[in-house]
Design brief:
Elements (H helix, E strand, L loop, with lengths): L5 H13 L7 H23 L3 H38 L7 E6 L9 E13 L2 E11 L5 E11 L4 E3 L14
Antiparallel strand pairs: 1-2, 2-3, 3-4, 4-5
């Protein structure tokens, strides 16, 4: 197994320490996660075997685990945003506007805010739902984009009712 240079190890450690401060830079977090996984797997595999195939298998396993952990954190962040938006929109009648905001517990994405309005309410026995439009606003309170979704009341609280297909801006949020 090749020796990992101390400068690379220091660079990886610095990125790991600084990554949470980078907020919305998911690509940096992904690269950092991959580097940390590489360093970790190199250390594990060199202590276990000199076989390159086994070392590669360990490396792939560690990288997959690190990637899954990062994806889990991203889903948590997106769910927290969904809860905030649904909670702000729930009490609104069509045409009313409310403000929503989120300060993330896990700072892998930037804190965000915007406005939300209800444009349609539909109910049937056993459920009540609303279609909403929400904005995500930048530092100058100008919308960076508008998005639509459906929220429904589950008997306790309003919650996101749509599946999470991929979109360019919100990843798996919208």
């Amino acid at each position: 197994m090749p020796d990992i240079g101390s400068s690379r190890l220091l660079r990886v450690a610095a990125l790991a320490v600084c990554a949470p401060a980078l907020g919305a830079c998911t690509s940096v977090l992904s690269a950092t996660t991959a580097d940390v996984a590489g360093v970790t797997s190199a250390g594990i595999s060199s202590g276990i075997t000199k076989n390159a195939a086994v070392g590669t298998g360990i490396g792939l396993g560690v990288a997959a685990g690190a990637d899954a952990g990062l994806r889990y954190l991203e889903r948590r962040v997106h769910h927290a945003e969904q809860v905030r938006i649904a909670s702000a929109a729930g009490p609104l009648a069509p045409g009313q506007v409310a403000y929503w905001s989120i300060v993330h517990d896990v700072p892998i994405e930037a804190d965000e805010h915007g406005r939300v309005t209800v444009f349609r309410v539909f109910t049937a026995p056993g459920f009540a739902c609303k279609q909403i439009v929400f904005s995500v606003e930048g530092k100058n309170d100008r919308p960076n984009g508008y998005y639509t979704t459906t929220i429904c009341f589950n008997g306790v609280q309003w919650e996101w009712a749509e599946a999470e297909p991929a979109t360019a801006r919100w990843g798996s949020l919208q």
